[in-house]
Amino acid sequence: MLALLGASSGAAQAAPVSPWDNPDAVASPPAAVPAPSRPPAATPRRKKPPSHPRMVPPSERAPAPDPDRTPPPSRPAATPRPRPERGTSTTQLPVSEREATSEDEEQERPAQRPVPPAPHRRKLGAGDDPGGRAEPQAEAEDEETPRSRRIVARRKHVAAEDEESGDKPDEDEDADDRETTDGDTAPVLAPRLVSLALEATALGRSFRFDTPLQSENSFPRVGATLQLEAYPLLSLTRDFYRLFGLGIMYGREMGQAAVPQVNGSTISFPVVQSRWQLDVRYPLAVTPSFVIMPALGYGVSAFNLQRGTPVNPSACPVGTAEACLPNISLASFALDLTLRYALTSSAAISLLGGYLLGSSVGRAPGNIASEAAATASGYHLALGATYALTDWLAIVAEGELIHHGYAFSSPAVTYRSATETYYGAGLGLRIFTK
Question: How far apart, in whole angstroms, are the C-alpha atoms of residue 322 and residue 216?
C-alpha cells in the first residue's frame, strides 16, 4: 500500500501538469513573496505655528514673554525620525512618511550659494581694443556702487562750479599761475608780440620867460607820431618775465614861428619840434577788464627855430621884429603809469600819467641854457581810446599834454624861470599780431 502511494507521488512530480488537464491551475496565482518588514511608525511632526501674527486669532495668541522677568522657553529636542532601510523605495511608504523623509533630506543637504548673474558685456565700439583689453574696464563701469556714484556726483559738481566761475582745468596749474595777464585780460587789452601805431597829430606850443622876453603861443603844428610796443619774450617762455615789454615813441611836428609887423605883415621862420622816448613796461591785470602798466623810460624833447644866426635869450626882448625864440634840447627820465580799462571786448580807454626829471639841458649857442645853467622837471598826461576793427587792426585816438619847467640860478641873467607846454591830439591806426 505504501509502495503504491510512493510511486503515484513520484509519477505526479515527474509528469508535467497540462492546462488542458487542470484548468484551475492557470487561474491560481503564484505563491506570494513575503513582504519586507516595515519600519516602526514615525512620531507625528508638530505643526509649526504660523509666522505671521495676523494669521493667528487674537484669542489664541499667547502674550509676549517679558525678557526681563522670564527666560525664553527652550525648544524641545527633535525626535529622531527613522529612515527607510536600504533597498526600500520611498514610493512604498505612506504619503506622510514620504513628505517627512524628503524634508529631512532637504535640511541635511548643504545650502548652495546663489549663482551670481553673468556680467553684462557691452559690444566693442569703434574706439575699443579688439583684443579685449578694454572689456574689463567696461565691466567695472557697469558695476555701480554707492561710493562710485558719490564720486561721480562730486566730480560733476566741481566741474560745474569751475565752468560757472570760469576757472581753468587743473591739468597745468603752473601754467595757470604764470598766465596772469595775457590769458585773463580782454582781447583789446592783451599784450601782443608786436603792436605798431601811426597817428596824425596836431600839436601846439606855449613858451614864456618870467621876464619881458619874447614868448610864443601857437597852434597847431602838424606832424605824426609813431609808437611801437613789443613783448619779445611773450612766445619764448611762460615765466613771469615774459611780460616785460619795450615801448618806443617818436613824434615830429613842423610849422612856423611868426612875428607880426607894424604894417600888418609877418616875419616867420620854420620850426621843428620833436620828441622821442624809450621805456621798459610791465602790464599787470587787476581784473580781466582793468590793467595797470608801470613803465620806466628815457627820452629827449627838442624845439628848433631854423634861422641862420642864433640869438641868445637875453638879446630877444618883447617887441623884436624877428622871431628869436631860444632853441631847447631837454633830456629827461620818465616814470610813467598807464591805466587801461576795457569797455567791451573791442573797445578800451587809457589814461597815462608820468613824471619827467630832466637830466640835461642843451647849452649850445641860441639854446635856453646858453647863458646860464638850467635844471628842468615836468610831467605829461595822455588820454586815449582804442577800438578794434579786426583781430589785427584798431583805430586809436589820443589827447596829450606835456609840461616842462626850467629854473636858472646864475646872477648873470635877469630871468629866473621859464615854462614850456605842448598840447594837442592825434588820430590813427594800430596794427598788431594776433
Answer: 12
Residue 34 lies in a domain: no
Angle at 392 between CA 391 and CA 394, to 5 degrees: 95
Distance, first Cα to last Cα, the chain: 150
Please name the residues in contact with 357: beta carbons below 8 A apart, sequence gap of 6 or more.
Answer: 332, 333, 334, 335, 377
Amino acid 22: pLDDT: 47
Please indicate, yes or no, if residue 156 is contained in any of the structural domains.
no
Q: 366 in a domain, yes or no?
A: yes
At 110-120, the pLDDT tens digits run: 555 555 555 55
155 or 431, which is more confident: 431
Contact in structure between 264 and 238 (CB atoms under 8 Å): no
pLDDT at 370 over 60: yes
CATH code at position 422:
2.40.128.90
Nearest-CA neighbor of 432 among 251, 201, 183, 190? 190
pLDDT of residue 209 exceeding 50, the answer is yes
pLDDT at 367: 93
Give the model confidence (pLDDT) of 236-283 as tens digits.
888 888 999 999 999 999 999 988 777 777 888 999 999 999 999 999
Domain count, the chain: 1
406 in any annotated domain:
yes
Contact 258, 323 (CB under 8 A): yes
Tell me which residue range forms the domain holding 393.
194-432
Q: Of all helices (H) and strands (E), which one includes residue 139? A: helix 135-142
Query: Any residues with CB less than 8 A from the CB of 218 and at least 6 apart, and which?
Result: 204, 205, 255, 256, 257
Map grid coordinates 609877418 to a residue. Answer: 266
Give tens-digit pLDDT for 399-417: 999 999 999 988 889 999 9
CB 267 within 8 A of CB 322: yes
d(CA 315, CA 312): 6
- Which residues are CB-contacts of 118 (< 8 A; sequence separation ≥ 6)? none
